[in-house]
């Protein structure tokens, strides 16, 4: 390096401050150019890529709009709404949602898609759960685990998937906690599936993550065993946040985004998403099943009470 | 004149290093002697207004330094310059170092260089002008640091153990430099444990120990002390 | 945007944000460390102890703390910087402050402190003495800043909590890696990790080369 003297240091200092301000103002201008809405969502939903996919389509006709997704845990997504940091919420945890609706934080409940949670397990299926109903399957897993023939892996992280698992145990009238065969990973879906694969264990997953990892050949030991039953239905809802400090521009955009998601185009996009990659859709559009889904949604809320 | 009135000082609010020192420095040359750890360096830094006493006043030409506003402090501080026992030189050449006090006082580079060259010539250090700090001997290093202090124009020049890095040849140079400084109407305050050097400067000597003034002597007093020492040492070596 | 295009964009964004954060942090960390180094008080040691223990503070807690402050319902919500690159920048700047202060304190508290005293006694104003000190220890300070940069670019908690990992806006290396892992895209995550490793190890190579340099 060149020998330094005070003058050079002063230049270096001035240069770095100018650089700092330059970067700051560039970001600032880019940032203030467009109408911006923020949506908090659960990581599992965001990780499928559906939301970015929908947004890219939406942008075609709304080039001045910037939609920012913030992917966090289910609980955190709603918490952000409560804090007023987001304009919309996309979530799949009915019992939590009901609480925030009651408190007037989120409104305009809109069910836009659904799919099924799946129970996956080792190919050999020691608990023989294939084609059983979800509740019977849980009972069978429990018995087989108690006999030392199987293991169960839980997310253990209060995510939407974890909550559904807890509901299933609850409805089966069983208590797996503190059992040696009940392993809580406390981490995301991918990590949990990998653990299940390594240990030849049963677990509950969302369809998207499972298909993705299965397609990549990372889950050679796991297969989908149960994927039907009302209790496995996973309902995705969109809400408008009341506590957000929005202006009329953003409100307009929020309305048109809601409209777009429920439009024929939007619903078709949802229904076809992932088919090219996984050979089957990851989501089913809500259109045509609105009343039914709303009933099931309410049923979940009541179940959790 | 620099005056210390009942000065107390401690590091980290621990045991006092300097206790209750009263001092008036009015001679052309004042020497402070004392064993290692006596508080010489601390006292010098208090005199040079680098350390603020916990208690007591430091008066520079009758002005109470630590009661001044920061702008006035700068003006007063520029009257005193302190040279460390192991001084540091800045990056760059000897010229860069010697011009520094002038540059920070707002002189143009050209004028500063001119003045610096004149000073280095008068101190017979001209041959060092373009050397870097790692190209100097320990003695040259010390002398350059002293030259840099002199050029600041300070009225009071405070030297901490200036002879500790010097060989005989450079000690002679230093002595003549000190005499030159005094001739130009400035005042020198030196801390040293080098009694021979103190003797040669022929002036008032303040002896301190444990942060207190033990006695005020004169070089002559040291002469007797050294004479006796040599006699004893001589007898011993003759007897053995 | 293409895959490669997006990765380049994330790389540029990550480096820019973390570099700005480092510069920003140095604006207060270096003067503060000098003040601490100059102080003779007994509090200084205690303060340095606290700062040193803060170096390993969980980043996600720093993130949470800043989230609470920057949130619309928080004390600084009005600024509207939550979920912007500024928020990450400020967060990282705060995150690396204890590290920068601690490391620069090491530089200033040793013999180098004499440079300050020397400048002052030669008649420098505090500002001039500060400049002199920075000049004398320039290489060391750059090394400190690069260490701070490595820490900033490699942290996840703050970037995730106050940045929000928004595509094309606040998505940086670490948040992308976390997202790709949760998607099951381990190959992409590993590739990004590899780029991050290159950046960090290049940085530390520079640190080593500069640290090994004897100043003239």
Provide a short characterization of the protein structure:
Chain A has 13 helices and ten strands. With 305 residues, chain A is an alpha/beta fold. In chain A, strands 1, 2, 3, 4, 5, 6, 7, 8, 9 and 10 form a ten-stranded mixed sheet that branches.
Number of β-strand runs of chain C: 0
The CATH top-level class label of chain C: Mainly Alpha
Kindly report the greatest chain-chain contact and the residue count on each side: A-C, 45 and 36 residues
**Distance from first to last alpha carbon of chain C:** 50 Å
Estimate what percentage of residues of chain C fall within beta strands: under 5%
Task: Encode the helix/strand succession of chain C as letters.
Answer: HHHHHHHHHH
CATH topology of the largest domain in chain A: D-Maltodextrin-Binding Protein, domain 2
Largest sheet of chain C at a glance? none
How many helical stretches of chain C?
10
Largest sheet of chain A: 10 strands, mixed
Question: Overview of this structure, please?
Answer:
The complex is a heterotrimer of chains A (305), B (240) and C (216). Chain A has 305 residues and is α/β, with parallel strands linked by helices. Chain A has two domains: 30-115 and 233-304, D-Maltodextrin-Binding Protein, domain 2; 116-232, 3-Layer(aba) Sandwich (D-Maltodextrin-Binding Protein, domain 2). Chain A contains 13 helices and ten strands. Chain A has helices at residues 6-31, 43-47, 50-59, 74-83, 94-102, 134-146, 160-172, 189-199, 207-215, 248-262, 264-272, 275-278, 290-304, and strands at residues 35-42, 65-72, 88-91, 106-122, 152-154, 182-184, 202-206, 222-226, 233-241, 284-285. In chain A, strands 1, 2, 3, 4, 5, 6, 7, 8, 9 and 10 form a ten-stranded mixed sheet that branches. In chain A, helix 5 (94-102) packs across helix 13 and helix 6 packs across helix 7. The longest helix of chain A is centred in the first third of the chain and has 26 residues, at 6-31. By secondary structure, chain B is of the alpha/beta class. Chain B has a single domain (2-89, 154-239), classed as P-loop containing nucleotide triphosphate hydrolases (Rossmann fold), CATH 3.40.50.300. Chain B has helices at residues 40-47, 70-77, 94-103, 109-122, 138-151, 168-183, 195-201, 219-239; strands at residues 2-10, 16-25, 29-33, 55-60, 63-64, 80-83, 156-160, 187-192, 204-209, 212-218. A six-stranded mixed sheet of chain B has the order 6-7-8-3-9-10, with helices on both faces. Chain B has a four-stranded antiparallel sheet with strand order 2-1-4-5, covered by helices on one side. In chain B, strand 1 and strand 2 form a beta hairpin. Chain C is mainly α. Chain C has one domain (3-212): MetI-like (MetI-like fold, Orthogonal Bundle). Chain C is built from ten helices and no strands. The relative contact order of chain C is 0.15. The mean pLDDT of chain C is 88. Chains in contact: A-B, A-C, B-C. Chain B binds chain C through residues 11-14, 48, 50, 74, 77-78, 80-82, 84, 87-88, 90-91, 100-101, 104-105, 132-134, 148-149, 152, 154, and chain C through 40-42, 45, 111, 114-115, 117-125, 128, 132, 135-136, 215-216.
